[in-house]
Specification:
single chain, 362 residues, mainly alpha, Serine Threonine Protein Phosphatase 5, Tetratricopeptide repeat, 2 domains, 60% helix, 0% strand
Length: 362
């Protein structure tokens, strides 16, 4: 009985909307009724699949996404079931176009857009597809006229800002969009939002070389030295303030033993192509920190050996060649223990993480 009452109310509300639109709307306008919105709930699984595919195409995280062919099949079935519901068919065609664009099939995406816009021109997904195709020049101007889910345009703005390296603004827009959109959007785009937060120190004014370096998920010795040289003065005393090429810079740093372990001998030689781990980062940063001559580089190992104490770090023993480097970086708040106990020496930091530590040394 309750279901019938709700259905009757929904139908009555749709009629009221339609009648009011006839009085004020232009001839030929498509009106989205309450039933149209209710039916959108039926394709949430499909929308979630497209959202995840979209997010993974921008920032791959290894999450499992549906194949495009499978999504197209789901869209075809949904269109058959939609019947005469123009709003729903328009949304489905827009979703098809977005997937085509992700796959690099622009012509098919244009065809889907044309099919969708003939049905409902102001559906949020139709507008987003039009914007990505370059047909709609300023998507954010459409917020006042979008027929449904205006926060989808806010989400699209967040994605656009991410692509422009405006990471702080991107974070703000992601957070604003997540508040009212279905949860699957936050689930799909959360990694992108978190990446924007991680990269917030990068601005639109930074040159391409800086952005390319700071957005790396892992860095080499060469990257580490380039970051130090370009964003700090920490190497000036070792290079006499001279601009050096990559090989010359490496040779200067190698000669000054900035890549050497302090606590004990280590036969491992860090080459220019070596991937930096947390413990190698600590080694280098500690050598820079103590190179000023104000701190005894071996003070921690000397103290712990004298007092016959065990290492306070769960996964870095007192016998480690980098014991002093790890404790020194942690004690001086250059680096941290992620879980309060372990250092995770073999994990590889991102460029932004390393840059944060580097600035603390300076």
């Amino acid at each position: 009985m309750k279901r019938n009452w709700l259905g009757a109310f929904s139908a009555l509300f749709a009629v009221v909307l339609a009648l009011s639109s006839c009085a004020s709307g232009n001839k030929g306008d498509v009106v989205l009724s309450s039933d149209d919105f209710l039916i959108f709930d039926d394709i949430q699984e499909l929308e979630a699949a497209v959202a995840l595919k979209d997010a993974e195409s921008i920032l791959p995280t290894g999450r499992e996404v549906k194949e495009s062919a499978q999504i197209f099949s789901m869209i075809d079935v949904s269109i058959q079931e939609a019947g005469m519901n123009k709003a729903l068919v328009a949304r489905l065609e827009a979703l098809r176009g977005i997937v085509c664009l992700i796959d690099g099939r622009k012509q098919q995406a244009v065809s889907s857009y044309n099919a969708a816009v003939k049905l409902v021109k102001d559906d949020a997904k139709v507008l987003i597809l039009g914007s990505r195709l370059g047909i709609i020049k300023n998507l954010q101007e459409q917020k006042s006229t979008v027929a449904n889910e205006p926060n989808l345009l806010v989400l699209e703005d967040a994605v656009s800002l991410f692509g422009k390296n405006a990471y702080m603004d991107s974070v703000a827009q992601f957070d604003a969009a997540f508040i009212s959109l279905p949860a699957f959007y936050a689930e799909a785009f959360r990694p992108l939002r978190n990446k924007a937060w991680e990269l917030k120190s990068i601005t639109e004014e930074d040159d391409e070389k800086t952005v390319a370096l700071l957005t790396k998920n892992s860095i080499t010795v060469d990257d580490m030295l380039e970051m130090t040289e370009s964003s700090t003065t920490l190497l000036s005393r070792y290079t006499s303030g001279t601009d050096l090429g990559a090989q010359e810079l490496y040779d200067a740093v190698f000669e000054k033993k900035l890549l050497d372990a302090v606590s004990a001998a280590d036969e491992k030689v860090l080459t220019r192509e070596e991937k930096i781990t947390r413990i190698y980062a600590a080694r280098y940063l500690w050598n820079l920190f103590t190179g000023r001559g104000k701190t005894d580089a071996k003070k921690y190992s000397a103290m712990y050996q004298r007092l016959k104490r065990k290492s306070p770090v769960g996964d870095v023993d007192i016998s480690s060649p980098d014991f002093d480097a790890v404790l020194g970086c942690v004690e001086n708040e250059i680096m941290d223990l992620p879980d309060g106990r372990n250092f995770y020496p073999e994990e590889k930091p991102t460029a932004v993480e390393f840059n944060t530590w580097l600035k603390k040394v300076e």
